[in-house]
Amino acid sequence: MNSYETVFILTPVLSEEQTKEAVQKFESQISSLGGKIKHSESWGLRKLAYPIQKKSTGFYFLTEFEAPGEAIAELELMFKRDERVMRFLSVRMDKHHLEYAEKRRVRIGAKSKAPAEA
Prior knowledge:
Strand content: 35-45%
Number of strands: 4
Order of helices and strands: EHEEHEH
Largest sheet: 4 strands, antiparallel
Mean pLDDT: 89
Low-confidence stretches: none
Strand order of the largest sheet: 2-3-1-4
């Protein structure tokens, strides 16, 4: 099993419930293809660098997971067929990328806990 990271952008016209449903659909697809979700986070509504489908914003999501190599082709086909997805990018993570992602998760976890402790 290889480690992968996928970032995808959903169209901004979706409601919060619709975005959650879309993310759950993709995560369940990863699981059904023999993968295991390691980390998932929402980056929220962000401005795009350039317009896509005449839209200047989109909902960004990051998913880190382990899956067999064949699962990526199926997952990307599902992204292409889903009209809610504006863009996506899947990357295989090497050992350096895995270390950085772990440090990033710890740093983000510390930041999110800091305001609650104060």
